[in-house]
Design a protein that fits this description.
Number of helices: 11
Helix content: 25-40%
Order of helices and strands: EEEHEEHEHHHEHEHEEHEHEEHEH
Distance between the termini: 32 Å
Strand content: 25-35%
Number of strands: 14
CATH architecture of the largest domain: 3-Layer(aba) Sandwich
Radius of gyration: 24 Å
Shape: elongated
CATH topology of the largest domain: Rossmann fold
CATH superfamily of the largest domain: P-loop containing nucleotide triphosphate hydrolases
Structural class: alpha/beta
Length: 302
């Protein structure tokens, strides 16, 4: 097990920022760590990276205890914090050289810097002062330093914050690639991004884990009803549509479209297709609606 958390709690005075949570992350797994603001995401990440200690419970990274072996844990982890603290008066290459020195990369310094500059798209910015970069490029510098020492574990707090759509796609692909042989935990408020990249998601709310599964399994659990959107070319009377088998309720939308909800987990598309065929109706569209990760997030955190 690459990362293991057992009964972890963090108190700030009387407030429980993290409330007795437990989870595991395997090597080669990309975990999306989600939750509303103030839910305990960043606190958990800071504990795993040895920035702050937990109040009770234990956490291990590559078998190393975060409380008793913090220096060993830090060697195993690459961390991009939400604040992405950088030295703004340094040049990009100079900053990465400085970070390489802290990691004691020695003869590997130049090779690793060049590799990180290339994979994070910093080639054109390498001779610029960090403070003069756009927010998106500063975020790339943060990603470069997190991966510089080729860590086994990557913990990324809002890694795509401030990136434009093209940069976001590039970093998303990079996270996917890194997840092949590293453990990656990342938080994001962009649900589509998490759904596209993560193998599994953990949703935390008020310091407690409220969901821990793949997005597919979470969607299946939530989909107690199946909704199908049908579009007819002809005008159809509401009473006639009531003849379709297996519907719980239905409503007219607009432009000849109707929303049908099944009375169970039955897919209504076949019933609607044969209904239209028997009534000599022309179907222009037939689409099954699925709950998105955003829908799941809203339900479990409300």
């Amino acid at each position: 097990m690459s990362i293991k958390v057992s009964n972890l709690t963090k108190l700030y005075g009387l407030q429980k920022a993290v409330d007795n949570i437990s989870f595991e992350v395997n090597k080669g797994e990309v975990l999306g760590f989600l939750g509303p603001n103030g839910a305990g995401k960043s606190t958990t990440m800071k504990i795993l990276t040895c920035f702050i200690p937990q109040t009770t419970g234990q956490a291990w990274v590559c078998g190393k205890d975060t409380m008793t072996e913090p220096m060993e844990v830090r060697k195993k982890i690459g961390y991009l914090p939400e604040s992405n603290a950088l030295y703004y008066d340094m040049y990009v290459y100079e900053y990465l050289e400085f970070m390489a020195g802290l990691h004691k990369l020695g003869d590997r310094t130049k090779e690793r810097i060049e590799t990180m500059i290339e994979v994070t798209g910093l080639t054109a910015e390498r001779k610029k002062i960090v403070g003069q970069l756009s927010k998106g490029y500063k975020q790339r510098v943060g990603l470069a330093q997190a991966m510089l020492h080729d860590p086994e574990e990557l913990i990324l707090d809002e890694p795509t914050s401030g990136l434009d759509p093209n940069q976001l796609i590039e970093i998303r692909e990079l996270i996917r690639k890194l997840g092949r042989d590293k453990t990656v935990i990342f938080s994001s408020h962009i649900m589509q991004e998490v759904q596209a990249v993560a193998d599994r998601v953990i949703i935390i709310n008020k310091g407690q884990i409220v969901a821990n599964d793949t997005t597919e399994h979470l969607q299946h659990k939530l989909n107690n009803e199946v909704t199908v959107i049908a579009e007819f070319k002809q005008k159809v009377e509401r009473a006639v549509l009531g003849q379709i088998k297996g519907i719980k309720h239905y409503e007219e939308l607009k432009d000849g479209k109707w929303s049908f909800v099944s009375n169970g987990q039955t897919d209504l598309r076949e019933e609607i297709f044969y209904f239209a065929k028997n009534k000599d109706l022309t179907l222009l569209g037939l689409q099954k609606e699925e709950y998105s990760l955003e829908d799941i997030f809203k339900q479990v955190t409300s």
